[in-house]
Please model this.
Amino acid sequence: MNSRQTYASHAVSLLALGLPLVGSHLAQIAISATDNIMLGRYSVESLAAVTLGWSFAFVLFIMGSGFAFGVLPMVASAVAEENPAQVRRVTRMGVWISALYGIAVMPLMIWSEHIFSLLGQDPLIGELASRYLMILSVGMAPSLIVMVLKSYLAALERTQVVLWITVFAAVLNGLLNYALIFGNFGAPELGLVGAAIASATMQVATLIVVIVYCAMATPQYALFQRLWRPDPEGFRRVFQLGWPIGLTNLAESGLFSATALMMGWVGALSLAAHGIAIQLAATTFVVHLGISQAATVRVGQAVGRKDGESLRDGAKVTVAVSAVFALLTMAVYLTVPELLLGIFLDADDPDRSAIVAIGVSLLAVAALFQLVDGAQVVALGLLRGVQDTKVPMVHAVVSYWLIGVPSCYVIGFWIGWDGVGVWLGLVVGLFCAAALMMHRFWTHVVSRLPV
Model:
């Protein structure tokens, strides 16, 4: 009897895993948006400080999150192999490494004022951002451990729980911000400090909720039993898989940070249009990210079962689903760009028409990179499923920093296409990453599977 899954069943399984992950990423975006909206209404200085502070914290976080991403395929494979001891070992050591990393970077956050001064930031904004980060540093290790446990749950196909945990965090963060920034519900008015306390409290509370859920819902893995016991081999495996993922994430986020810097050189209106367009692009990107993470789980399961046919067919479906969504997004960006941009702008803003005009051009380029941006993150997810992370890291650094950033500068300023040129350089970098990573997966992995 032929037990091969159809392409339709692969698609259903992929979306069942991936859509809750997409929802959790949208909830995560809501957390940062809530901070910005509330602090923007409190004071301009507070908004500038949290923007600077969070940008710095995000770099540290995105590097540390590589270990959580590394846990995902390892747990998925161990589950498919019916090896609960390996599930436990990998997850525990992911928790260990994330906790150690979170503690190690705390001094950088606590004494960040000196770093901001060296980077030439405004002294007042740098001092406020440092106060924000001093408190936020308490939540770094908990937030990274939550990432590890979310990866563990996703690998167990409990992605709906991951969604609801993130929604809980978003709601709690909003309530605490409302209370502690403005002094509502009888709380003191603390402004920026209140936002930091709210974020750190939310991160610790979320960790407690996740730990309780994992202990009660997955007792068969005895995840927290003898958690203090070292496992050098498990530690080494998680570390070796995770650190290249962290650097890959850093390379990609660094490319987007560099484009923001260059858009600032073009002018304030271009930077404003860039901010709106990149927010729209980031919102649609999380769909591809959720699909990519679901693909990591499904590929990891296929590896654990030694099921090459399922791996190959599932990968084809993953690429197709991502491409279909990219095409739909392209259609929206090209047909109603003014409507999308107008959501972020006051109708009475005197610069509205100029920002919209620039934004329309940027969204046309964003439509162009939907396919390649989706392709590169899906390829990464597929490669992580087979625990291939070092070569993709090299591909990311070459594509984003040796090709992408110079292309942004050359097309934007040497050729003179300004903001559109900077974004076309972004497309070049993403295209190279997508091409290299897709080529590696289909030639290095799929072509070696038995027919």
The chain has a mean pLDDT of 91. The CA atoms of residues 308 and 450 lie 7 Å apart.
